[in-house]
Amino acid sequence: MASSSNPFLFAFISLVFFFYFFVFSENKSFVSAIREEVSELQLTHHHHVPLTSLLPSSSCNSPPLGANRNGSLEVVHKHGPCSKLKQPSSSSSPSSFIIQHSEILKQDEARVRAIQSKLSKTRQNHHQEQVETSNKGAGGTQLPAKSGIPLGVGNYYVTVGLGSPKRDLFLVFDTGSDLTWTQCKPCVRSCYSQKQPIFDPSQSSSYSNISCSSSQCSQLVSATGIKPACSKATRACIYGIQYGDGSFSAGFFAKEKLTVSPTDVFDNFFFGCGQYNQGLFRGIAGLLGLGRTVLSFTEQTAGKYGKMFSYCLPSSPSTVGYIAFGGRKGSSGNVKFTPLTSISRGSSFYGLDFTGITVAGMNLQISASVFSSGTIIDSGTVITRLPPAAYGPLRDSFQKKMSRYPKADPLSILDTCYNLKGYNNVDIPTISLSFGGGVTVELDVTGVLLVAREEKVCLAFAANKDNGDVAIIGNQQQKTLEVAYDVAGKKIGFRPRACK
Ligand SMILES: *[C@@H]1O[C@H](CO)[C@@H](O)[C@H](O)[C@H]1NC(C)=O
Ligand SMILES: *[C@@H]1O[C@H](CO)[C@@H](O)[C@H](O)[C@H]1NC(C)=O
């Protein structure tokens, strides 16, 4: 068939061509506007990503991130390939980097239960917070009773210097607790194994014990929830702190020179010098307490940093993030702030006003009263916990948008999982969280999904047991956001895409 010889067809084709030319070329601005809108719709409502970009990597892909910038430290995931906690022998095998998600989620559940029980207790009865302990003085120190601030341990660490001369220590940082502590020689009862040499106060010229009669010793109750004990021999103040996963530290309450960076040195920093430590700290030397009560790092360094810090948790364990102390002039313009609230009097936790959830550009119909039990943001909780009446609509809407993908069995507390094996690219609906003051924060795709492996990719949110439990914004959802805490200014800010 010589169709081109048909004059009608020729005319028709010309017409079509002309029409095409007219609409798509003459009206270029109209077309490109539509195109932009379509691509914007896709951009803002879905993450279109190669599946491989979501999978765990076995090598550390981070160039050192301005680690020597004043007042700012690298933030490293404990279990990832950038971690320096592993022994060199095991780090050569890629399998040593496989993260045990179910184990992490189990610990996470312990931390959340502990937060809930602490908050419900302090709400019921503020003055019953001080709990009996069975501390019996130095040497013969008994483990404090089963109380205290019972949190599991966070999963990101920083490096700070302690003592004179300074020793570098890996400390987990935790916005949900206050006391900073490290394991100390001679480990009167026991120490777990850590990567760096255990801090030895007898080798530091700037160490001193705190006496039982000092006001700081009595402030320990608010930082640890446990009344301090007193050494009979030297009247040295003895602290104890226990976490929800069973981990604990007990020892001498002391002061020491703390070095954050060469220009940021704190001469009399109060910390716990732990002689008896056990638990899931695995390789790290202790904990940096960034909570809100009087002995926290935030409060002790207020003179220099003005109770301000901001961090960015990396998108994956194979990159590093940062924590910066003090006000930061450069980036603050892009930070959106929401009011900081108190969840209960004297609590370490940072509260904020959670108002709504958006999935793929659609605001979920959730009544404001659903969030009336309050919300905290926590660096140590992994998975965000929502009131059941908010989680249900989120899950349903997410499942609807993901209906083209085959489902997979739940992973621990995560009930919405998919098997994405065989897909090159995937379209993941965006999720945004809204807070008081009209602040809406779009989460990174790593804040939407927890990717255990190709066959197990899960919505990274979970429901609280009870609508009366406090909601918790966990660290999975905070990834790649700068989270700026301005305690004096009573506000918390978010800036997207602040780190990789
Ligand atoms: C750190 O601060 C000191 C003194 O304020 C300054 O001289 C130095 O250049 C700063 N270093 C960096 C990396 O900003
Ligand atoms: C701190 O107190 C402990 C226990 O009483 C004691 O063994 C240690 O020598 C004291 N350290 C200093 C520097 O006073």
Explain briefly what this protein structure is.
Belongs to the peptidase A1 family. With 500 residues, the protein is an alpha+beta fold. It has helices spanning 7-26, 28-45, 88-91, 101-124, 215-224, 297-300, 302-305, 388-401, 445-448, 475-478, and strands at 46-50, 72-77, 156-162, 167-174, 181-183, 208-209, 229-230, 237-242, 248-261, 264-278, 286-289, 308-312, 321-325, 336-341, 350-352, 354-359, 362-363, 375-377, 384-386, 407-408, 417-418, 425-429, 431-435, 439-442, 449-453, 456-459, 461-463, 471-473, 482-486, 491-495.
User: What is the first-to-last residue Cα distance?
Assistant: 59 Å
- How many E strands? 30
Helix content: 10-25%
| Uncertain stretches | 1-5, 15-28, 88-98, 126-151
* Average of the residue pLDDT scores: 83
Strand order of the largest sheet: 3-4-11-5-10-9
Bin the strand percentage: 25-35%
CATH architecture of the largest domain: Beta Barrel
| Tally of individual domains | 2
Q: Write the CATH homologous superfamily of the largest domain.
A: Acid Proteases
**Count of helical stretches:** 10
The radius of gyration computed from the alpha-carbon positions, rounded to a whole number of angstroms, is 26 Å
Which ligands, by name, code or SMILES, are bound? Answer: 2-acetamido-2-deoxy-beta-D-glucopyranose
The CATH topology annotation of the largest domain reads as: Cathepsin D, subunit A, domain 1
Could you say which structural class the secondary elements and strand pairing correspond to?
Answer: alpha+beta
Largest sheet: 6 strands, mixed, barrel
Q: What is the CATH class name of the largest domain?
A: Mainly Beta
Instruction: Tell the overall outline.
Output: globular
